[in-house]
């Protein structure tokens, strides 16, 4: 009975042997995968081609190694200088922080130990006291006559200077306001004698009016306008009067326009 019971029990007696075999199998698979990943595809062709391809692979590999070494050397050469700069900056920063801390401590000490200063009241100036007439006014002023004489003399000199200034000022010529005007005078048609029209315009004369240069400016269809300049005194000659007087020459003049007006 006991033997039959043991025969029916499923017991894995050689489990350790199976574990070792399994681990060995997986190790072999891992090695094969690494070898297959690093394996180089065999080159097809003759032996010389294979050798040339192998040289190209070796050359590329050496070039990559050289580039990596150059980068490492450059970074290693710059490293001491960068470390020194960082140390210097760190030292300066520490000194600055220490100075700021000392200033803050001094400021706190000054604020805590400061005594409030008394306020200074700003008052308006005290008006001068006017002494009331008393016994002092009755005293005799020994120098009163001299001061009155000096005041009268100073007033006389001041009046003389004012009179001389006013006389000098009145002798200066008054500024006369003048204007420079350019008039455009248009005739009726192309048959109008422009020379006669200009002569008739220049016959207009009055105090404060001075005629200047004139020229003919073509308009259209053989018609030209007379452009003439003049200088007038604003107080003596009115622009409206001048244009109306020119327009009274109805035999020659159709219209009068002001082309330019400038103060002189």
TrEMBL record:
Residue ranges annotated for the Translation elongation factor EF1B beta/delta subunit guanine nucleotide exchange domain, each copy included: 178-264
Lineage top rank: taxon: Eukaryota
Domain Elongation factor 1 beta central acidic region eukaryote as annotated: residue spans: 142-169
Chain segments annotated as coiled-coil in the UniProt record: 76-110
CDD domains: EF1B
Key word Signal present: no
UniProt keyword annotations, A-Z: Coiled coil, Elongation factor, Protein biosynthesis
Matches recorded under Gene3D superfamilies: 3.30.70.60
GO molecular function: guanyl-nucleotide exchange factor activity; translation elongation factor activity
Cellular component terms per the entry's GO annotation: cytosol; eukaryotic translation elongation factor 1 complex
Family under the similarity heading: Belongs to the EF-1-beta/EF-1-delta family.
Protein name as catalogued: EEF1delta_1 protein
Origin species: Fopius arisanus
């Amino acid at each position: 009975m006991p033997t039959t019971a043991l025969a029916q029990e499923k017991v894995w007696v050689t489990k350790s042997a199976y574990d070792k075999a399994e681990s060995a199998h997986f190790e072999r698979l891992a090695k094969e995968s690494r070898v297959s990943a690093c394996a180089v595809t065999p080159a097809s062709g003759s032996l010389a081609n294979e050798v040339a391809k192998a040289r190209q692979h070796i050359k590329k590999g050496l070039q990559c190694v050289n580039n990596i070494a150059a980068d490492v050397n450059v970074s290693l050469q710059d490293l001491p200088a960068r470390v020194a700069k960082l140390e210097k900056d760190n030292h300066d920063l520490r000194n600055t922080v220490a100075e700021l801390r000392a200033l803050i401590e001094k400021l706190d000490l000054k604020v805590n130990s400061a005594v409030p200063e008394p306020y200074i009241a700003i008052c308006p100036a005290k008006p001068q006291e006017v002494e009331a007439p008393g016994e002092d006014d009755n005293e005799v002023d020994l120098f009163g006559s001299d001061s009155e004489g000096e005041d009268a003399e100073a007033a006389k000199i001041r009046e003389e200077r004012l009179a001389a200034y006013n006389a000098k000022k009145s002798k200066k010529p008054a500024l006369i306001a003048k204007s420079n005007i350019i008039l455009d005078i248009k005739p009726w048609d192309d048959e109008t004698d422009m020379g006669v029209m200009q002569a008739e315009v220049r016959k207009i004369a009055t105090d404060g009016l001075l005629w200047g240069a004139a020229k003919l400016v073509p308009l259209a269809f053989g018609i030209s306008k007379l452009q003439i300049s003049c200088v007038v005194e604003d107080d003596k000659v009115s622009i409206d009067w001048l244009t109306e007087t020119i327009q009274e020459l109805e035999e020659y003049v159709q219209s009068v326009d002001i082309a330019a007006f400038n103060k002189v």
